Amino acid sequence: MIHDYLHLNKILDLNKWKRLQDSLATVTKLAILTVDYKGNPVTGHSSCQSFCSNVRKDPELLPLCQKCDARGGLEAVRLNAQYVYLCHFNIVDIAIPITIEDQYIGAVMAGQVKLADPVSGRDLEQIVTVKNSSLHLRKQKHLQQSYDDIPTMTYEEIIKIASMLSLLCNYIVEEAIHKNVLTEMFEKAAGKEEALHISTLLPGFTIKNIETIKKEMTTAIADAYLKNTAADVRICANPVLQPAFDYIFSNKSKSVALTHMAELCHLSPSYFSRLFAKETGENFTGYLARLKMKWAKQLLEITDLPVAQVSEELGFNEPGYFIKTFRKFEHTTPALYRKQLKQR
């Protein structure tokens, strides 16, 4: 039944969505556009920058913009998380996939900002390279004033906004689809065209109440599970390191720095690193990543938490980095790992 709703225009009131999109664009200072699973726009652009608007009107440059949009969206789908990248003019863009039960139904494209701290974003991929660089530079020079007017943001600000938009967009879509499914179920249960009000079946509750309770229970179960695993405590051969291990296992949702662990043990970072490697047989970064991937697999196995939320539960600031780390250890993505489990 849920597959009947795998189209954005059937799930969302696009007029209301566009108003929300406009508000988000104003608050975040990003240009935002929503597209369907084929890449076709289902809303107009919100807060499109003058430079980008003019570039898209240029028949020689428009194909490059379209190629950026297409590749950005595909990469986001592949990662099953928001994807931050650079366009052919080194402007930051974000592709946020909208998925329901692992089905890709569309994306929110945001961005059109420049990095205030290019060094911090040096790992961002320029998703499309330009063959005719001289023509490209000449076009940019012609639009230099509007290019200079493009707002700037720090890399950290962009990542935080991308995560917020991803959680918000998918939450709203999930709310809408559950409402549609529940409405259809109530209609069939009633045996008539009128839908039964949820308040009739579950007095004192609304759909929002139920979804909020569901999310809170899922998170609580995940937290309880991770806090009660058999490997919840590690007893060190070297007792000097015990405070660091106690902290790691008691703060699974935090990002843990080596320098902080060294301070807890009253050691210098270099001496702590040597003792840690002797204790575990691997360096601090490798050990911590391996441990977090073990916890990630547990969460993927026993909960329905979205991959982005699993990432957040384990202290990763950016879902893309979490997915990259998971793939390094498990040779697959978190989404595919979960899917393979369900097929067994």
From TrEMBL:
Transmembrane segments: none annotated. Residues 242-340 form the HTH araC/xylS-type domain. The keyword Translocase does not apply. Keywords: DNA-binding, Transcription, Transcription regulation. One of its GO terms (molecular function) is sequence-specific DNA binding. Gene3D superfamilies: Homeodomain-like. InterPro entries: Homeodomain-like_sf, HTH_AraC, PocR_dom. PANTHER family: ARAC-FAMILY TRANSCRIPTIONAL REGULATOR, HTH-TYPE TRANSCRIPTIONAL ACTIVATOR RHAS. This is AraC family transcriptional regulator. It comes from Paenibacillus albidus.
